[in-house]
Amino acid sequence: xxxxxxxxxxxxxxxxxxxxxxxxxxxxxxxxxxxxxxxxxxxxxxxxxxxxxxxxxxxxxxxxxxxxxxxxxxxxxxxxxxxxxxxxxxxxxxxxxxxxxxxxxxxxxxxxxxxxxxxxxx
Length: 122
Fold this sequence. Notes:
The chain has 122 residues and is an alpha+beta fold. The protein has one domain (2-121): Alpha-Beta Plaits, CATH 3.30.70. It is built from 5 helices and 6 strands. The strands form 2 sheets. Strands 2-5-1-6 form a 4-stranded antiparallel beta sheet. The protein has a two-stranded antiparallel sheet with strand order 3-4. A hairpin with a 2-residue loop joins strand 3 and strand 4. The two termini are 21 Å apart.
């Protein structure tokens, strides 16, 4: 099964990316990422730029509406994602609990939906 770990981070955690990498939060990511790679479960994943760089698109009455910045002004913002190949939801929850963002923000675990993609592709 494939799972997405959606990494929600605080503004402070997102700001730490601009530093020199010596802060405790950024340093905690190094062994976590190394463990993911060494486990053989890591398929993909990337940090995202800060929420202010995002653009939200909606279609209303047939017209494209574009809004700069994040969709919602919340305490935590989507900071990145990781795609893993794992045998079960329990295994995904274990990796989510080990993620540094789990202690400073939140990690949402969501199964990928390959059957939905197959329906779309026909």
